[in-house]
Please model this.
Amino acid sequence: VQLVESGGGLVQPGDSLKLSCTGSGFPFHAFQMSWFRQAPGKAREWVADIRNTGTNPTYHLAVEGRFTISRDNAKNTAYLHMNNLKVDDTAVYYCRAQSGLSRTYWGQGTEVTVSS
Model:
């Protein structure tokens, strides 16, 4: 089982980034996908998730209206489109695949730095 995030980088406030998370070794289409982030010195926090069918995306209040989660089950990939990035969005971003209570997989993270 593997989840690989990509797309992080250094951007300026107001810029956009698109993160990707590609899964392998498990039935991606059957898993809810979520994005979390962990800022320096802070606990990991939930950012957004999307059902296995691609419906009902939900967002943390801090990112609602700026971030969009989506998925392409044919490509075994979930995405996080981030617009109007703020300094407070600086963090390592992780994707998580979950099915029920017993099957949870995490990626290794991709770093996003927002700085002027």
About this structure: The mean pLDDT is 97. The chain is about 0% helix and 55% strand.
